[in-house]
Amino acid sequence: MARSVNKVTLLGNVGKDPEIRSTAGGTMVANLTLATSDRQKDAQGNWQDRTEWHNLVAFTRTAEIVRDYVKKGSKIYVEGKIQTRSWDDKESGQKRYRTEIIVNELVLLSSRDEGSGGASQGGYSRQSSPASSTASFDQRTPAGQDELAQQTEISDDDIPF
Fold first, then answer.
1. Angle at the Cα of 140 from the Cα atoms of 134 and 141, rounded to 5 degrees
2. How does pLDDT run across 145-161, given as a tens digit for each residue?
């Protein structure tokens, strides 16, 4: 079988406050929408902005972070995969489809005060300098620290060019 890739990278603004729920088994799930914009010229040569809306789903720890730190207007970066699910509508009996991005990695790009309303609802900010307000959350397990890399210093003489 041929190898395939299903990876999505998005950077945009959250369209409305996330919806948080738990499954019957107790797994936390966050549903949110993300708007991305693209600029194209129309037939008359005028620039037109085109907004695309994406349905995002986050689980477990990432859903908790969405619950605590993401709100309408937040700028976020996500990596994930596309998944389409289907079900039979109970009212009409028709088959329904929904395409979603399953979030694997989430990076908060807005400061706590940048969402709609400007009110701070708590938040997380890991800052290396006063101008930096980016926090990154990755569901993968963190790699261990490499002691040798921390102890070794590189000088200009070590660079081959």
1. 105
2. 455 444 555 556 656 65
